[in-house]
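Possible regression after last week's pipeline update?

I re-ran a chain I had predicted before the update to compare outputs. Posting the input and the new output here so someone can diff against the archived version. Not blocking, just want to make sure nothing changed silently.
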Amino acid sequence: MKIDPTLLRYEQIEPGLTFETGGITVTEGHILAFAGLSGDFYDIHMDDSYARALGYPGRVAHGLLGLALCDGLKNRAAIRFAAIVSLNWRWSFVGPILVGDRISAQITALSKRMTRNPARGIVTLGFNLTRDSGETVQKGENDMMVHSMVGAPVE
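New output (post-update):
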């Protein structure tokens, strides 16, 4: 197995490393597709009138859609990791994501530790997902297993 040399391995990731992702505008298509994939057709996601009656300006995107989009933004960022697998998420849904919101994330490497296998380490990443206004809509942490320099050869 070969690993893309542009991906950061365990030894190259230092706590405090912080970067911004690009953004994505949440569309009605995202919400409808996610509802179809997840089976979550709750009225707050599907019915503008219902959402407005609850005090929102319109339909609210699924919280898990925001998390999924955040993970995708991480995977498309200029700084990327030689990831093996995501192990755990600790996540808070702080505010609504609405149709038309452009979201992006700030990601910070919080900590890291080696596993028993010297070819792998675990990095804890902190996320702050915001809309263009700067308001946080979601935040949390992800434990991700990554390749170390001892691992597979570089491509």
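Follow-up from reviewer: compared with the archived run. DSSP finds four helices and five strands in the chain. Marking as no regression found.
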